[in-house]
Automatic annotation (TrEMBL):
Protein name: Sulfotransferase domain-containing protein
Polar residues bias locations: 243-262
Location of region: Disordered: 239-262
Classification lineage: unclassified sequences, metagenomes, ecological metagenomes
InterPro entries the UniProt entry points to: P-loop_NTPase (IPR027417)
Length: 262
């Protein structure tokens, strides 16, 4: 077992817009062998569980965001990535949490949607980490935000006007596009990352997931199917309601950002 003075192996960092199914991706990676410590469990807004380390979120990430004067929920206002303060010993603090929560050996992960909003800070602490950027259609994210109780940033007209929006929906569209800019920055700056579109998985296409697990050095576990199957059933019902029947054949890995529809 490592002691507090030793560095852990490089982490797997999972991020993306909130409401992009980052928790599903993190859940799969955790099931396939990446240690996550004590993670937030299921709740009304996320019945599968958040798979986000609660101490890192509540004791490191949110206090940092408050300290730099932005929304600790990562909604509005957002950090200015060109003017971020580098916190003291972020690497040591994160690794200390993992060790105190039982890490012994092997891969480990942290999932946090807010990480991409402060990505230079994490990249400074873990310059060679492997990142997973989770993507979802803009329209689907917007609708999920509007339906989710704690996503409240753009309900008020005052906040909408500050981002040039005329409605809550337009406010969330602006917010998604800010995240997309961060993703492009990460890729342009050479962050070691892969893009994952989890909607493929919930439509029965696991090829991208297999490739991602291989890249991470993790092994597929059959329990993933039981974790994803209820989502697959929900996806099928939604497709029938919308009159859409998906092609579940693999179309190759998505390596670049693509424009969203909706």
């Amino acid at each position: 077992m490592l002691d507090m003075k030793e560095s852990l192996p490089l982490p797997i960092l999972i991020t993306g817009c909130a409401r992009s199914m980052t928790s599903v991706v993190a859940g799969v990676i955790n099931m396939c062998g990446a240690f996550g410590g004590k993670m937030s469990g299921p709740n009304h807004n996320n019945q599968k569980g958040m798979f986000e380390n609660a101490r890192i979120r509540n004791e490191i990430v949110k206090p940092y965001l408050r300290h730099i004067g932005v929304d600790p929920m990562g909604q509005y206002p957002l950090p200015d990535v060109d003017n971020l303060m580098i916190p003291v010993d972020l690497k040591g603090k994160v690794e200390r949490v993992m060790l105190e929560e039982g890490y012994e050996t092997g891969p480990w992960m942290y999932k946090g949607a807010k990480m991409c909003l402060m990505w230079p800070v994490w990249h400074y602490a873990f310059p060679n980490a492997k990142w997973i950027i989770v993507r979802r259609r803009t329209g689907d994210i917007i609708q999920s935000c509007i339906k989710t109780g704690f996503m409240r940033a753009f309900i008020r007209e005052e906040a909408q006007k500050k981002v040039g929006a005329a409605s809550e929906e337009e406010g969330w569209k602006w917010w998604v596009h800010q995240h997309e800019k961060r993703f492009v920055e990460m890729i342009t700056e050479g962050v070691n990352c892969k893009i994952v579109w989890p909607h493929r998985m919930v439509q029965g296409d696991y090829q991208q997931l297999y490739e991602t697990l291989d890249w991470l050095g993790l092994e597929w576990q059959s329990e993933v199917l039981n974790f994803v199957d209820p989502l697959l059933d929900h996806s099928r019902k939604k497709e029938k309601q919308n009159g859409v029947f998906s092609n579940r054949q693999s179309r190759g890995r998505q390596n670049t950002l693509r424009p969203d529809i909706g």
